[in-house]
Amino acid sequence: MTRDWWKHLILILGALVVIAPFYMMLSYSLKSPGEIDRGEGGFFGRQEMMIDERCVALRDPNRDEVASAAKRFPGLTDREIRDALITEAEADCAMRPAVFNYTMAFTEAPLLRYLLNGVIVTVSIFVIQVLVALPAAYALAKLRFWGREAVFSLVLFCLLIPVHAIALPLYIMLAKLGLTNTYAALVVPWTISVFGIFLMRQFFMTVPDDLIDAARMDGMTEFSIVWRVMLPTAVPALLAFAIFSVVAHWNDYFWPRIVVTGSRELFTPPLGLREFKGDGDGSFFGPMMATATVIVCPLIVAFLLAQKRFIEGITLSGMK
Amino acid sequence: MADLHIDGVVKSFGETQVLKGISLDIRHGEFIALVGPSGCGKSTLLRIIAGLESQSAGDIVIAGRSVAGVRAADRNLSMVFQSYALYPHLSVADNIAVPLRMRTMGAVQRLPLVGRWMPGAAERNREIDAEVRKAASTLEIETLLDRKPGQLSGGQRQRVALGRALVRDPAAFLLDEPLSNLDAKLRVQTRGEIAELHRRLGATFIYVTHDQVEAMTMSSRIAVMMEGQILQCDAPDLVYEDPEDIRVAEFIGSPKINILPAELNGGSLRVLDRDIARLTRVADQPGIRLGLRPEALRLSGADSVLTGVVAHHENLGSEVFAQIEVPGLSERVVLRADPSARRRLGLGATVGLDFDIGDALLFDTSGKRLRPVIEAARAAHQVA
Ligand SMILES: Nc1ncnc2c1ncn2[C@@H]1O[C@H](COP(=O)(O)OP(=O)(O)OP(=O)(O)O)[C@@H](O)[C@H]1O
Ligand SMILES: [Mg+2]
């Protein structure tokens, strides 16, 4: 134990490096703009009341409002009434920085809509990937047909093609089909996952042939074998694949940025971060980091809920 | 009535011919044991009958209908696999129910969740449930119905695999070494149960094993297979007492049959340079072989055909096996004796061995059985 202290030290240092950005994100999402600028206030910030300038600006009283408020402030001049109204507005617009940041995140941009889009896109991608990958992997692993090895080499070859290299042709194809700015553009290019086919094929290779023969003797067609025998036995491998697929597409910024150009209706969560860019003065770092926090939350919650099975899945895919 | 004919089946994997023309007629209700050494093609033959593998030539005829090109699922056979091959994600009850569900329920009725609300599904499910319970009680696994295969012992899994094969009423049962993973005690017990089951169901069984005791005790006929050919297919006692081929004689019987080199000269049979008998209706040939079961030998006096030194003995209580080193023979001769003879079989003792020529099995150079007429038993045989 004590002899291994240096191993622990290295691991702790590594963990710190990985955690640091998350720490900053969480911390910024809680602090006021001033604290972010000056780099003070520790993790939580002082959480002093701060005044939302834009909220106050929106409630800047005009002449009619001053006139109608005159009854409430008898004996004061217009100017004094106006000052009193502004003070009132400031009191109403004051809030804690954390509340401010997160309210901004949800009100300034339709973040819930983005989250919903994210769920629709990642779930459709994963489901279709599985629908394609399982039968393909089964055929590659267990059926004997002419050209099987050649097809499998193609799968291996496709693993080597980086997405960014084919992004442009893909985009042009989608544009020609008139599919840009649709859910289809976000989903269709990812529905055939060679990685999924490869992973499931490797897993199916370990399923004993006798099990499949037994299913045939029991009267199953090849198609029912895939869904009734292979799918249930492959759940751990599928979970491992789900991690890779869902994480990759939930967090993807590159592809949605390319094919979703117009309407914010189709923005996925990472695109939501763009809402707060461009304000060079940095006063929107708080809301931006709040958005980022909201975006990573679903994945972290999902991981915590399914932690045990996830780790099983990953170690299993490493072993087989 | 589902007779099963195997007609000149040949199977090659690439260059190597694994089955070299297998023909076998199996009548309904027979229990055929398919025995042979490892790698002789037993499983391959069974898989071809089942339709899981296609033959290179030849035909399989089930109930008068050639099944060439018929899928395994449609041949109406059930099979028990050497490795059990239970569905790991299903409970024991569901495992046994699968063949019934797949064959008697429509695709819609089998759908998960919604299937059970389809018309007729509830009733079918009840029937299947009853049949599963019946099969489970036959095999005494009712208490295990809710478990997963992973939570069962090897013997229990094997019963479940049998149950899954037995719920249906197929044309024939194919069993591929179903007992090979069991311990000795369980194997004996299950052996009895399967034989009992066969008697009760009256169904056709093809039972692959390389354990000859299983073959001898359970089957109505034994098919001895070697190097891709069936050498002999006969009732167990016939295969033992009257083998057609020296390889059959050597494979069946434990301890192994004793093989002595012999010579046939002018009708006189010579073993170790002694005349033993006069034979007729058989051509002279050198290099023939004489097979003697251990129980065909008996202890005798000094002037015997075989004289040797006891090199090893095994006392099994009810009988004694002695290995005797005989000068001039490359292998030891095994003798089965009564326990009363134990004193004479001490290690290093010199003993004489004698036999009746009527008990000996003669094989020609190529290993085929010779059936000569014995005219005079043994010129040199005076001491009984
Ligand atoms: N798919 C295959 N490809 C090539 N050769 C095969 C294949 N399947 C079986 N063989 C060969 O065919 C021969 C017979 O195999 P088989 O499995 O039928 O033997 P077996 O009699 O069942 O043996 P065991 O008692 O060990 O189970 C073996 O030599 C084996 O190597
Ligand atoms: Mg075998």
From TrEMBL, chain A:
Broad class of the protein's primary localization: membrane
Highest taxon in the source lineage: Bacteria
Domain ABC transmembrane type-1: 115-306
Localisation per UniProt entry: Cell membrane
GO terms under cellular component: plasma membrane
Gene3D superfamilies with a match to the protein in the record: MetI-like
UniProt KW Signal keyword: no
Keyword field: Cell membrane, Membrane, Transmembrane, Transmembrane helix, Transport
Segments traversing the membrane: 9-30, 114-138, 150-171, 183-204, 225-250, 284-306
Topological relation to the membrane, as annotated: Multi-pass membrane protein
One GO term of the biological process aspect: transmembrane transport
Assigned protein family: Belongs to the binding-protein-dependent transport system permease family.
Protein name: Carbohydrate ABC transporter membrane protein 2, CUT1 family
Natural source organism: Roseovarius litoreus
UniProtKB/TrEMBL annotation, chain B:
Keywords assigned by UniProt, alphabetized: ATP-binding, Cell membrane, Membrane, Nucleotide-binding, Translocase, Transport
Matches recorded under CDD domains: ABC_MalK_N
GO terms, biological process: carbohydrate transport
Pfam families attached to this UniProt entry: ABC_tran, TOBE_2
Gene Ontology cellular-component terms listed: ATP-binding cassette (ABC) transporter complex, substrate-binding subunit-containing
Positions of the ABC transporter domain: 4-252
GO molecular function annotations of the record: ABC-type transporter activity; ATP binding; ATP hydrolysis activity
SMART domains for the chain: AAA
InterPro entries: AAA+_ATPase, ABC_transporter-like_ATP-bd, ABC_transporter-like_CS, ABC_transpr_MalK-like, ABC_transpr_MalK/UgpC-like, Mo/tungstate-bd_C_term_dom, NA-bd_OB-fold, P-loop_NTPase
Family: Belongs to the ABC transporter superfamily.
PANTHER family the record matches: MALTODEXTRIN IMPORT ATP-BINDING PROTEIN MSMX, TREHALOSE IMPORT ATP-BINDING PROTEIN SUGC
Designated name of the protein: Carbohydrate ABC transporter ATP-binding protein, CUT1 family
